Amino acid sequence: MIRSPPTAKTMNQSRSENDLIKLCEDDQFSELSPSHITQRAKKRAFSPGAQNSGISEKSVEHIDYRTELREMMNQFITSQNARLETLETHILELKQHCTKIETSSNGMASSLNGLSDQLASLESKITGLDRQRAAMCSHLSALDEKIDILERNMIKTCVEIRNVPLRQTETKQDLYGSIAALSNVLGMDSKLDIRDISRYRVDKKNNSSAIILEFTNTLIKSKFLDSVKSYNKKNPNQKLNSTNLGFTNKEIPIYVTEQLTAQSRKLFYLARIFSKEHKYDYCWISNGRILMKKAKESPYIVIKSEAQLRQLSELSDT
């Protein structure tokens, strides 16, 4: 049978079929297709039925490629849907975790707010306690000062003679005899106006103690102390010792000072240490007061508390 020459329509149709085949065989299509889908290796055989029905071999191949492409796209969409479902599941799990974290963070925030309120309350209480403590310290300092003044008034006529040896058996008469011997050495009347005399032990190791001598008035006390200072100045190599009190065993130096309260004694000890460290030439006691002088021409300073010594130390350091 003689075929008619190809028209422009059939030529265009053939060209479009060739383009489609080339597109399907291109590398880009192979990149779009999943790796688990195998491509057809051989061309399908042209069935005689298709030839009898007037469909060309290229048209059949075109239909097969379209069917195969549709299947590939369906498989690709199915795989993508599965991936999207997996992603959606993970996202939902993440949302649930975020919700739990948010809930726990809200609980922590509320607990932190409660703790901050408690801390603020504690700070206010501590501030109040600090104020009460400062007021109590000020009140105690005032009470200590008043007590010290009362004690000083009680012992304002007393003299302390330290480092006096102990006798095995000693009576009040023996003590009065020792003071009478000391009065003769100092050039004073042996019959001093003494109200009372007593002894208390100071150092158990050295077997020494102190004698407390109470006069009837402060005038006699001052004359007695002035006589002691004058004697020690006149006899720098032979100052007052135990032989001046009637002890004949051995010569032990004795020290005669005003009797001090416990607080004044501690403060006087600290003042002596301070005067040595900061080169104060004079540190002494007069009428129960602790005095210091930097030099002979300098004005004296009355030491009333340990805080005053700390302030003087800070001023000296600067």
Short description:
It contains 8 helices and 7 strands. By secondary structure, the protein is α+β, with helices and mostly antiparallel strands.
Structure write-up:
The chain is α+β, with helices and mostly antiparallel strands and about 325 residues long. Among the domains are: about 120-155; about 155-260, Alpha-Beta Plaits (2-Layer Sandwich); about 260-318. It is about 60% helix and about 15% strand. The strands form two sheets. It has a four-stranded antiparallel sheet with strand order 2-3-1-4, covered by helices on one side. It has a three-stranded antiparallel sheet with strand order 5-6-7, covered by helices on one side. Helix 1 crosses helix 4 (about 55-155). The longest helix is centred in the N-terminal third of the chain and has 98 residues, at about 55-155. The radius of gyration is 58 Å and the shape is rod-shaped.
Please give the largest β-sheet: 4 strands, antiparallel
Number of strands: 7
Task: Give helix % range.
Answer: 55-70%
Structural class assignment: alpha+beta
Overall pLDDT: 80
Please identify, by name, the CATH architecture of one domain: 2-Layer Sandwich
User: Any idea what the CATH superfamily of one domain is called?
Assistant: L1 transposable element, RRM domain
Q: In CATH's first tier, which class of one domain applies? A: Alpha Beta
**Overall outline:** rod-shaped
What is the CA-CA span between the terminal residues? 131 Å
